[in-house]
Write a structure and sequence with these properties.
241 residues; alpha/beta; three-stranded antiparallel beta sheet; globular
Length: 241
Amino acid sequence: MTEPQPGRRPSVVVEHVSVDYHVKTGRKGPDGTRAPRTRVVNALKDVSFVAYENDSIGVIGTNGSGKSTLMRAIVGLTPVSAGAIHASANPSMLGVGASLIKDLSGAQNIILGGLAMGFTREQIEAAYDDIVVFSGLGDFIELPMRTYSSGMTARLKFAIATARTHEILIVDEALAVGDKQFRERSEARIRDIRDQAGTIFLVSHSMTSILDTCNRVLWIEKGELLMDGEPGPVIEAYRER
């Protein structure tokens, strides 16, 4: 467990969390029949840490290390097999894979996305121009989203999701899309959310984005939390693995 930090308010407490997946497998026997077996995959193994307000936490590790499983567990999308997770507010997850409605225009998706986040119609209209400018889509905003590239879709989703203030926000690889200017805008937006007493988890393979954005890094490998500390030393150890 992370050492307590007096004077700071915890936002997420992860206590000895494990997540096990039960995968059915089977081999054919001599008679040609398949004998069912269940294999247990330990996606997370006894992970503990405390996140605080104003923390921007990078989450790193190789593919399949358990990063996304941990984030889904914090949001409540993946049940834990052992341990517990406590949060001071409902965590929100922003992931590139989440879909908008492809047959509607970007403009229509801004309205629907805003309503889904609890905005009033007046609040959406007030934020509309900023969302369009932030996404960098220009005139494409009036076209159906099925005409968008994956990067354009991800940029619009990020612009919509971060138009409101989040107490706990999980960003899963969303900064890997777009050009340098969009990444800089995205990183600045994340810092703004953090500075307003929010807590950010940034899952990324971009060490540059993490160094520019985060004050702390969790390194997860094979379901275990290997390091939790300042970005420089953790990233250096990760690169030297």
